[in-house]
């Protein structure tokens, strides 16, 4: 069975989960057609005395459309119904015994009941009512021409057809109710999962706010008010506090945007410009005020927004690691656009260079030496290692490569190669 509004070309019971149930209508239709076709011919000719050619034509019209009823029961009903009525009229031309059933012989009743069952499983209630009314009208109308009288047994066509239509309609309605209940349960389960996810995201947002936002706000306020609370601050110290306050405010703003996304599944954050290559210089200056001079080689090339953002985040994480693990170490940040990698003899490499930069990559290099003196203890305890993981994910998203690791003489090196063309992105 399938829903009332389903496509009409699907077979009856095509929506059943079990394979044997889906094949059952075809099997029954085939058995009825094969059994009723010869039986109708024999009965109409031998018992009723109808002409063989006429009996054969009626048998085909009454039995063969049962195969069509599996897919299009209403169209099959038109053919079978007209064939049954034509057969009843044809029997009026012959003299048959009173004991024989008229206007519809038993084999026609069997085929019509199977057809009505298929109709009940597929068609709307209004259609079923109209089919039954047409059946009753034809049965009663033919009764006025009954050669041997018209009694209760002659109404079997109407009674059995109505029972089959009712049974099929009840089974279809039951299936519809079960299907809708299953759909509702699926929707409810999805809503429960979505609600659980939103609750967890809200909980994470609350914890982040409670743990981080308060402390970042305190840092900002203390740094902003330091020049008023502390007397005779040197200019360089006052500038340092101003930088600390500015960095804390920026971090607090980014965290609040992240918390907004976590609290609301449909939120996409504020429409603010994302940092790129132009902002890396500011990042280097802020780091230099913390750990000492940082050599910086900028790049003025135009790069895709995704590449610029990835480069900024990679440099940000690399410099943060320098601050945490090697403060005071000699550090170098370099940005450069390189051509395609090759030995120069490959025709493809020459074509790339001559073709206006096809295959170019942005190289992001952050190298720091060992710290000038051993630290008494690590600046942070219990690092998660998520920074390197985040770098690799950002590089992978733009189709680049990442090379990180310690240097033989001490220190650390981060080298990322980010593609600049659609060819390399794909």
Automatic annotation (TrEMBL):
Biased composition (Basic and acidic residues): 350-361
Keywords: ATP-binding, Kinase, Membrane, Nucleotide-binding, Phosphoprotein, Transferase, Transmembrane, Transmembrane helix, Two-component regulatory system
Transmembrane segments annotated in the record for this chain: 26-46, 52-71, 76-94, 100-121, 128-146, 152-171
Coiled-coil stretches: none
Domain Signal transduction histidine kinase subgroup 3 dimerisation and phosphoacceptor: 200-265
Catalysed reactions, semicolon-separated: ATP + protein L-histidine = ADP + protein N-phospho-L-histidine
GO molecular function, one term: kinase activity
InterPro entries: HATPase_C_sf, HATPase_dom, Sensor_HK_TwoCompSys, Sig_transdc_His_kin_sub3_dim/P
Pfam family, one: HisKA_3
Annotated spans, Disordered: 334-386
Matching SUPFAM superfamilies: ATPase domain of HSP90 chaperone/DNA topoisomerase II/histidine kinase (SSF55874)
Domain named Histidine kinase/HSP90-like ATPase: residues: 310-421
Record-listed E.C. numbers: 2.7.13.3
Gene3D superfamilies in alphabetical order: 1.20.5.1930, Histidine kinase-like ATPase, C-terminal domain
Protein name: histidine kinase
């Amino acid at each position: 069975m399938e829903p009332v509004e389903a496509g009409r070309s699907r077979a009856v019971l095509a929506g059943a989960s079990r394979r044997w149930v889906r094949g059952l209508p075809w099997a029954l239709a085939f058995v009825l057609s094969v059994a009723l076709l010869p039986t109708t011919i024999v009965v109409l000719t031998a018992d009723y005395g109808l002409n063989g050619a006429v009996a054969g034509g009626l048998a085909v019209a009454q039995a063969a459309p049962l195969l069509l009823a599996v897919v299009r029961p209403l169209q099959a009903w038109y053919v079978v119904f007209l064939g049954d009525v034509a057969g009843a009229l044809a029997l009026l031309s012959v003299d048959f015994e009173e004991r024989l059933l008229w206007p519809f012989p038993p084999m026609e009743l069997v085929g019509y009941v199977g057809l009505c069952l298929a109709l009940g499983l597929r068609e709307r209630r209004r259609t079923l009512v109209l089919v039954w009314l047409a059946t009753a009208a034809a049965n009663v109308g033919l009764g006025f021409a009954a050669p041997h009288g018209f009694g209760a047994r002659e109404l079997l066509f109407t009674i059995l057809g109505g029972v089959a239509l009712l049974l099929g309609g009840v089974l279809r309605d039951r299936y519809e109710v079960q299907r809708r209940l299953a759909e509702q349960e699926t929707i409810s389960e999805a809503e429960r999962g979505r609600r659980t996810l939103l609750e967890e995201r809200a909980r994470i947002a609350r914890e982040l706010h409670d743990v981080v936002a308060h402390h970042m706000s305190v840092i900002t306020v203390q740094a902003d008010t330091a020049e008023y609370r502390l007397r005779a601050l040197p200019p360089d110290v006052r500038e340092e506090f101003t930088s600390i306050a500015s960095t804390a405010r920026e971090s607090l703003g980014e965290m609040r945007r992240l918390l907004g996304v976590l609290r609301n599944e449909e939120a996409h954050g504020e429409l603010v410009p994302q940092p790129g290559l132009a902002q890396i210089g500011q990042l280097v200056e802020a780091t230099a005020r913390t750990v000492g001079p940082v050599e910086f080689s900028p790049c003025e090339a135009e790069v895709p927004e995704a590449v610029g953002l990835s480069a900024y985040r990679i440099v940000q994480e690399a410099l943060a690691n320098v601050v945490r693990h090697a403060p005071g170490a000699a550090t170098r940040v370099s940005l450069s656009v390189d051509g395609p990698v090759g030995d120069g003899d490959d025709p493809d490499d020459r074509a790339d260079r001559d073709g206006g930069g096809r295959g170019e990559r942005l190289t992001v290099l952050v190298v720091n030496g060992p710290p000038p003196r051993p630290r008494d203890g690590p600046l942070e305890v219990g690092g998660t290692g998520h920074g390197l993981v985040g770098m690799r994910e950002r590089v992978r998203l733009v189709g680049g490569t990442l090379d990180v690791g310690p240097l033989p003489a001490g220190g650390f090196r981060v080298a990322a190669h980010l593609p600049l063309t659609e060819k390399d992105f794909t």
